[in-house]
Design brief:
DNA-binding, six-stranded antiparallel sheet, alpha+beta, DNA-binding (chains A, B), transcription (chains A, B), GntR family transcriptional regulator (chains A, B), UTRA (chains A, B), homodimer, Bact_HTH_transcr_reg (chains A, B), Arc Repressor Mutant, subunit A, 261 residues
Chain lengths: 261, 261
DNA sequence: CAGTGGTCTAGACCACGCG
DNA sequence: GCGTGGTCTAGACCACTGG
């Protein structure tokens, strides 16, 4: 089992056996004797080392997995999790000066950290606004919206899903309701349509993913998501877009600038 | 088992039995037939209903727990999780006009949502700056800092731990290095000392809690944390404080305002 | 006390990966 | 084919909660 320093179970301790085992393994990871990408000893090796039943070992391993420290790969083994490149979302990512350069925010930022950006499953349709979205857009209960759904990937690995809602009255028949929103993205199009943007509000939650989200982002167990809802306001105060995004928490650091005023 | 509509296992399906069971229960929760606070059928009831072994039921229940949908209470049962009151952290929470009113941000905001705020385990000491903190404060490697640790509670339930670091050179011998930082908190004291605050930078991550964090915040399994690191800058650009906080993700929505500039 | 969930055992068969 | 993890069974004893 390599250079690991795994003690034996202390039968006198009142700490559960599986917790003692997960403590040992967690200690090896935190001490760096098990590095990201390293293989954790197999179940059979641990069974032999500790002299316990298989389910006890599995419970210890599940503990580590639910803490986001390891991933199990069927037929290969259990590995210490290695983090993908982290994308930093800065407060100024929607500044007009970036938009004017013609690249959508995601592409520019991802190239900036040396990753290969891509976008897939772009779907655009017109639909009834969900209630919470309608509220944020200050629309009536029967309002129609253009809905743009897409998924963002870095180096082929999905990191974020996003759904934008724009009042149909604004976007219908424009490039916003076509899959390719053009240079600078939909914010550039909104400004061309005369909706000069003034500010954005972002609400951020963190939670465990639903089953669908875990599938769409290929999330291993133990990785939470950021759920970010951004509302874009035009000068004059009208809400012109709501963007509902779900991001893999280990692909992102969100970064904000607050004036002391 | 009440009004629940729990189907039987489909033996023809290739979906694992325990996943079929957790799908059923998840459906009852999402449909609202199991409301927050409701008791999920007991293991023995589920064993009888589905005719499977206990470990299979337990695996299904663990699935729901790791998704943050339920909590198990030893000797009582498994319950649908009910959310505590959510505290919204707004962009303007450190605006000077609030500080001038003399209430620290946490107290004022919590009373605003009808909760009873409290703070405990306040510890203050002087220590060597950890490397990452020293970097953020632009201090040398042997720099000393005043460290202020505390835990915030709403209605007696812990929601956040915070550790502030202030260069010792600034804070030594002032009220900042005493447990009670006085009206308006340490930001008010820093300004009185001539460090007029200009802006704050916040970095936000989400992840599963460590064991220590889960204990300090009494987090049930399946609840991630926000890890927020805020740096306070004085006019002139000097970093005068770093605050490292860990927040229960289901007690908070973070809210930010971004100018379109 | 009865009922609940928490831990643990000692097996079984299966599906996946890799050589 | 062999070793890996994934699922499942059928028991056991324990600790906690509540009447």
């Amino acid at each position: 089992m390599g250079n690991l320093t795994l003690p034996l179970i202390d039968p006198a301790s009142d700490r559960a056996v599986f917790k003692q085992i997960s403590d040992h393994l967690r200690g090896e990871i935190e001490a760096g004797r098990l590095q990201p990408g390293d293989k954790v000893p197999s179940e059979s090796q641990l069974i032999e080392h500790y002299g316990v039943a298989r389910m006890t070992i599995r419970q210890a391993l599940r503990e580590l997995q639910s803490e986001g420290l390891t991933v199990a790969e069927h037929g290969r083994g259990v590995f210490v999790r290695s983090r993908p490149p982290v994308r930093r979302l800065g407060s100024d990512r929607f500044a007009r000066r970036h938009r004017d350069h013609g690249k959508a925010a995601f592409i520019a930022e991802t190239e900036g950290i040396g990753g290969k950006p891509s976008v897939d499953s772009i779907q655009v349709d017109e639909t009834q606004a969900p209630a919470d979205i309608g509220d944020r857009l200050s629309l009536g209960s029967d309002a129609r919206v253009i809905r743009r759904s897409r998924r963002y990937l870095i180096n082929g690995h999905p990191v974020e899903t996003a759904v934008s809602y724009i009042p149909a009255e604004i976007a219908r028949g424009t490039q916003i309701s076509t899959p390719d929103s053009g240079p600078g993205g939909i914010y550039a199009r909104l400004e061309e349509l005369g909706h000069r943007l003034d500010h954005f509000d972002e609400d951020i939650r963190a939670r465990m993913p639903t089953r669908d989200e875990a599938r769409a982002l290929k999330l291993p167990p133990g990785v939470p998501v950021f759920h970010l809802v951004r509302t874009a306001f035009a000068e004059g105060g009208r809400a012109v877009e709501v963007c509902d995004t779900v991001m893999s928490s280990d692909a992102y650091v969100l970064s904000y600038h607050l004036p002391a005023r």
